[in-house]
Amino acid sequence: MSENRIQVLLADNNRELCSVLAEHIGIQEDMELVAIAYDGLQAVELIKEYQPDVLILDITMPYLDGIGVMERLADNPDAPKVIVLTAFEQESMVQRLIAMGAVYYMVKPFDTLILLERIRQFGHKNGNYTKESQNIYSSVLSAARGLSRHQLELEVTKIFHEMGVPAHFRGYAYLRDAIILAIQEEDILGNITKNLYPRIAEKYNSTSSGVESAIRHTIEIGWERGNLESFKKMFGTENYQKDRSRFPTAASFIAKVADRIRLQLQIPS
C-alpha cells in the first residue's frame, strides 16, 4: 500500500453500492480501498487491522449499526475520519453524528463525485493537500470564490425556481445566503447552529432561532408544494414517495444544493 494514497475503508451492507464505490475509488490515483465491511462488527475489526485514513460508514448495518461503530472508535486516538452515509435526515441524528466526531454526512442517494471530493478533503494527512493530489474539489472552490455574489445568487435562484421554492417567504433570502456561504466556505456546515445561522441573523437583524425557523419553513413549503420531479432528482425518489411530509433537514438541503452548484462550476482541466 502506498503511503501517499488515502487509505479508505468502506462499511455498508449494500453490496451493490459497495461494488460501485469500490470501482470508483479503485481508479483514483491518490486513493486505495483497503477493505469492505458488510456489518458493523466486521467494520470494527477491519479498522483495527488496516487503520484507514477515512471510513465511509453506513448508519444502518446488521449486528452493530454505524452509531455503535462510532462509539467504539471514541477512545481510539488513531481513529479514521468518518464520512457517514445515511437514508435518514433527522436533525437530532445529524447533530449526534457530528458530536460523535463524524466529519461529514451524505444522504442517500448521493453523487459519487462529491463523495470522492470529501474523501480527499478530509483524508490527506494533517489535512493538507499535496501538489500531486490537487483535484476537482479545489478547482471548483476556486471557481466559486472567483465568482461575484451576483453570479452565485443567479445560480441559486435558478435551482430554487426549478425546484419551486417559494420566493415570497422570509426564509428564501436566508436560505439563499446560507447556500452561498456553504459554496464559499466548505466547512461552515460543520455546525450550522453556531456557525451559519448567527452570521445570517446578524446580516438581517434577526436571531439564530428566527433564521433557523424561517429556513425550515421555506424548505417544508417547497418540499410539499414544489416541483415533484426536481425534488426527486435532488433527494431521491424512494424517500420522497414514502412520505412527502418528511422534508430534508436544513443542513442536508443546503449541502445538496451547494454541492450541485459546485459541480456546475467545474473548471475544465
Q: Strands across the major sheet, in which order?
A: 2-1-3-4-5
CATH class label of the largest domain: Alpha Beta
Secondary structure: number of strands: 5
Shape: elongated
Strand content: 5-15%
User: Into how many domains do the coordinates divide?
Assistant: 2
Description:
Helices cover 57% and strands 10% of the residues. It is an alpha/beta fold. It has 2 domains: 6-134, 3-Layer(aba) Sandwich (Rossmann fold); 139-264, Winged helix-like DNA-binding domain superfamily/Winged helix DNA-binding domain (Arc Repressor Mutant, subunit A, Orthogonal Bundle), CATH 1.10.10. Strands 2-1-3-4-5 form a 5-stranded parallel sheet, with helices on both faces. The radius of gyration is 19 Å and the shape is elongated.
List keywords for this structure.
alpha/beta; 269 residues; elongated; 13 helices; 10% strand
Brief digest:
This protein has about 270 residues and is of the alpha/beta class.
Topology:
Layout: E1 6-11, H1 15-26, E2 31-37, H2 40-50, E3 54-58, H3 66-73, E4 81-86, H4 91-99, E5 104-107, H5 112-123, H6 136-146, H7 149-163, H8 170-184, H9 192-203, H10 208-225, H11 228-235, H12 237-242, H13 250-264
Parallel strand pairs: 1-2, 1-3, 3-4, 4-5
Helix pairs in contact: 2-3, 7-8, 8-9, 8-10, 8-13, 9-10
